[in-house]
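Q: Can I see a sequence and its folded structure?
A: Here is a first one.
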Amino acid sequence: MYMTFRAHIFRNISQLAKVKIMKIGGKWEELKIPSSIRSIICLNLPSFSGGFNPWGTPGTRKKQDRDLTAPYVDDGLIEVVGFRDAWHGLVLLAPNGHGTRLAQAHRIRFEFHKGAADHTFMRVDGEPWKQPLPSNDETVVVEISHLRQVTMLANGHCKSKSVEEPATPSSHGHENDDSDSLEDEDEWKEGRKKFGAADTFKLPDEVDIAHLS
């Protein structure tokens, strides 16, 4: 299962919604979203949009400093990942690339309020829709919780792993001992240049991006 929603290119998530999370056996607490984040993915499996792993596998330091774990499908946790823009999404093409890890939680709630936009775009398990947002003092609430499990068929090379299995899920069969180097704004800009995305990059007016393959 995965769910995504994004803000307008010139808006950030905090202008549209208040995000709250609940740990296992805990209480609701507000999740602070960096102002640069414009889209959020919530998922409980290490495969998204053609097999990419937005959460990745946190290295030893991140496990200790932020109490993060690998994305197991049966640990009762939902991984919450943020992205700044389309260029940020390109990090998934790089070895050990991942989005900005925001939280791991048993439940997550989005409380949309009247604000900077009248709608947002959402997608659940590949099905997109345009979600109207409040035009008055009402609140639109979207809540996701890790509830039950269903039996699934999987082959021996399946990326999804159980918390009961000794092997840590990763794209190359070993722990991704990363440093979250692309999660800091300055280092993200440097990483962006590695993909050839200069700050002044712009497609020519005569180029229709819809026709690019």
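Q: Show me another, different protein.
A: A second, unrelated one:
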Amino acid sequence: MTAVRRGRPRIIDQRRPGETPREEILDAAAELFTAYGYTATSTRAIADAVGIRQSSIYHHFQTKDDILDNLLVRTVDASARLAQRLSDYPSSPASRLYVMVWYDSHQLLAGRWNLGALFQLPEIRGTKFPHFESRREYLRECYRTLARQTCADSNLWKNKHKIEMTVVTELPFHFVETSIQIRADSPEWVAEAGPGAIATGIADSCLRALTAGCTAALKVKAHRIRDQLALDMAG
């Protein structure tokens, strides 16, 4: 990541949300990358969308890859921090997993742009974005751990084959990522139903898959955790 430097004066008045030119650049890049793809989006197009000179972008980011890396990390960083806070939280694995799935899904559904769609870009495959990959893998392993612990507390998965258990422990992460496709396929419905309601449906479905039920008591515990951690889960 590069230090913020003072750029040249902008061409027009600010027309992007953000307290700094760096934030405006990220907002414009997010819109263009999700709409047209990474390769098809030039730094000139990003600069035009912000209303600055193309050269000014390089006062804030070394390369276009640097811009994408910043956006990718934003898709997982808040959820990874929450996972760390929940790792030794005094509550059942199932209730902690519910909070994780809810919060992560809500993050992906409620953002200004569908940044989760950037996961699917062919350009991110490989080792070009190690910080993003390490944070995403950390988050994924947290889901696996909570899923294993949740299944251990449930009679549903006792004496199951190792392959079945491997599949089951991967489910929560993939339940969360369905929110990306839901948002891409049905933006009007997401706007109408609201990210909170859809995230609730995803979390409920995930716990039903792992425990054959998502009880009212479990949801009460999950909401208590939310309140105690002061998570913004409204909407």
